[in-house]
């Protein structure tokens, strides 16, 4: 074993060796005195010293267990190391780290305090103690240790970064910016502070500060692809696609083969309105990647930009090039299914062999596609085989019942669902049976069935939710509201109920502040959910805030393309801000989807309502 102290001593000895002093001054490299002082300070620390070979052995074992994810085992090994090396600040700091990873912040703090008492100038202990205290929301104490760490090693970036994060946690972003500015002054050319704080602020929605920091980071290090990518994402999120694409092009100058950057650039080009430029980025990306998932990601990017033809072309080309890859057939089926091209979807899913790990899902999806096409016999054969292999699969049973109903056998569908409820009752099967009864004009019977189920399990949040949805299907908005409130009384963070309640309130024009609060909470629990953003947009619409409604509904439509309800709402919002052409386009697209998939209408009379809206639009005067 050689400690860092011994190593530094050997280096110093070499500097004063006879041969070195005799060398000509012109050939001797200049000595960086500051670097030498740092090396000597590091050598004087306790980090490299162990009281015994046993202590060092246990320390090495702790590191092996740490990297294997066995943090409890690492704690045990460190305790053995400390048994013969009590007070070693490195061992105490590592022990504090392991406790922190186990979530035991009290023990972590205790060991780290021992470390700083034993070695007040030990930088790593102060930094980690600052982290632990920040996590425990003890900000004042955390700040003391982090400032001490900065004073110990002003040219080390970590303490600055943790201190900046602390100020963010305290709700003081301006102080965080001052910290990274101090880091930049102490470490010219170091951009990690600007980058990390910029990314953190962007995640928190503080786009103005985030943009300033990321622009500064990009100016200091034009080759930082991560910074450029984050800055481009910020531009995209703030509806500046051309600037996003330009920034990504700069990133590609540094790393022309970055797959994620190429994908982001293609998406930005689509948002900027250039399918040609997007295709160039995507073609380059596909030439670099042999992963079957990549054509799917490109295809879904085209779909989000309302370019279904390009999406299908990408997948068809990928399937021709990789005949033996079953996942490509599966992914192609998913894309065609999303586009409501059920014949193409069924054909693609048929290309997934039985030995594939996605075969079971592909078979059920193929059965649904065939059922929607009216090919009932083939669909039912597939469903029977799927249910035979997985008799407890609730989703398969519910889909099988819906296919029987489509094929003109509602009695068999009802029987199949009741058989499932007799053996394995679940909220999903109750919902399927209630919906089946409702479609047969037996809505009151459906409500009675669900009330009995809820009476048996009054705190079953999912059953309560299903009962609320059944009331809404029956046109009983008040009953639906009451049931959704009952769900939240049992499960306050039931995201679907929060969203449903907010949407019902918006529809009724009641307490729009509560409606917004409920939907926003649902989005906190399940961010980037198209249906929830649609609800938020509808709250804004009902409030008369049409500009914000357009923004939310456009994002909802991006996340859930070709959903008729979202498209109708988006058209309504466009109409209110006098964007008539876009309103007409949204409504027409909703009608196209309904023609392919009539079951997606919500409510059932949606198609007629859309046609009336289109007819009511003022016609343009011919150009003169």
Automatic annotation (TrEMBL):
Gene3D superfamilies: Tetratricopeptide repeat domain. Coiled coil: none annotated. InterPro entries: TPR-like_helical_dom_sf, TPR_rpt. Residues 1-22 form the signal peptide. Residues 598-624 are annotated as: Disordered. TPR repeats lie at residues 89-122, 123-156, 360-393, 530-563. Keywords: Signal, TPR repeat. PANTHER family: CELL DIVISION CYCLE 16,23,27, CELL DIVISION CYCLE PROTEIN 27 HOMOLOG. It comes from the Bacteria. The keyword Signal applies. This is TPR domain-containing protein.
């Amino acid at each position: 074993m050689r400690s860092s102290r011994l190593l530094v001593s050997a280096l110093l000895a070499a500097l004063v060796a006879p041969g070195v002093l005799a060398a000509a001054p012109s050939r001797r490299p200049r000595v960086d005195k500051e670097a030498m002082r740092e090396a000597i300070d590091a050598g004087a620390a306790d980090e490299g010293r162990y009281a015994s070979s046993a202590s060092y052995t246990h320390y090495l074992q702790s590191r092996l267990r740490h990297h294997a994810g066995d943090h409890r085992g690492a704690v045990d090994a460190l305790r053995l190391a400390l048994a013969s090396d009590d007070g070693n600040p490195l061992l105490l700091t590592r022990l504090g780290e392991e406790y922190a990873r186990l979530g035991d912040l009290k023990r972590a703090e205790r060991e780290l305090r021992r470390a700083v008492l034993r070695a007040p100038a030990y930088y790593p202990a102060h930094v980690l103690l600052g982290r632990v205290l920040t996590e425990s929301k003890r900000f004042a104490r955390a700040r003391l240790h982090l400032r001490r760490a900065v004073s110990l090693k002003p040219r080390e970036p970590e303490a600055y970064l943790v201190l900046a994060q602390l100020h963010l946690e305290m709700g003081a972003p301006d102080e965080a910016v001052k910290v990274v500015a101090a880091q930049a002054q102490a470490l010219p050319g170091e951009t990690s502070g600007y980058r990390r704080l910029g990314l953190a602020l962007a995640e928190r929605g503080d786009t103005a500060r985030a943009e300033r920091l990321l622009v500064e980071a990009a100016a200091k290090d034009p080759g930082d692809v991560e910074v450029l990518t984050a800055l481009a994402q910020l531009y995209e999120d703030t509806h500046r696609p051309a600037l996003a694409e330009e920034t990504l092009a700069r990133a590609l100058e540094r790393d022309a083969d970055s797959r994620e950057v190429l994908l982001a650039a293609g998406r930005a080009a689509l948002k900027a309105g250039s399918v040609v430029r997007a295709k160039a980025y995507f073609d380059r990306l596909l030439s670099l990647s042999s992963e079957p998932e990549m054509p799917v990601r490109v295809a879904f990017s085209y779909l989000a930009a309302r370019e279904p033809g390009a999406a299908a072309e990408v997948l068809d080309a990928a399937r021709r090039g990789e005949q033996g890859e079953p996942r490509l057939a599966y992914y192609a089926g998913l894309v065609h299914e999303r586009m409501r091209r059920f014949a193409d979807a069924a054909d693609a899913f048929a290309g997934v062999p039985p030995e594939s790990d996605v075969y079971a899902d592909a078979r059920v999806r193929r059965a649904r596609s065939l059922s929607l096409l009216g090919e009932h016999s083939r669909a039912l054969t597939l469903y029977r085989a799927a249910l035979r292999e997985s008799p407890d699969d609730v989703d398969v049973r519910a889909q099988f019942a819906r296919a029987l109903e489509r094929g003109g056998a509602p009695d068999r569908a009802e029987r199949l669902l009741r058989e499932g409820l007799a053996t394995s009752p679940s909220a999903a099967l109750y919902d399927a049976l209630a919906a089946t009864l409702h479609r047969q004009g037996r809505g009151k019977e459906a409500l009675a069935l669900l009330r009995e189920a809820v009476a048996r399990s009054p705190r079953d949040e999912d059953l309560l939710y299903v009962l609320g949805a059944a009331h809404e299907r029956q046109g009983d908005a008040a009953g639906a509201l009451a049931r959704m409130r009952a769900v939240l009384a049992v499960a306050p963070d039931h995201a679907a109920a929060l969203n449903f309640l907010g949407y019902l309130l918006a529809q009724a024009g009641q307490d729009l502040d509560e409606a917004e609060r409920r939907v926003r909470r649902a989005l906190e629990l399940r961010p980037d959910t198209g249906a929830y953003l649609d609800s938020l947009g509808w709250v804004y619409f009902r409030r008369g805030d049409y500009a914000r409604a357009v923004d939310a509904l456009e994002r909802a439509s991006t996340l859930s393309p070709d959903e008729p309800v979202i498209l109708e709402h988006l058209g309504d919002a466009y109409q209110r801000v006098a964007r008539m052409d876009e309103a007409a386009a949204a409504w027409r697209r909703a009608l196209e989807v309904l023609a392919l998939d009539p079951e997606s209408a919500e409510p059932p009379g949606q198609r007629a309502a859309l046609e009336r809206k289109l007819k009511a639009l003022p016609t343009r005067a011919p150009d003169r």
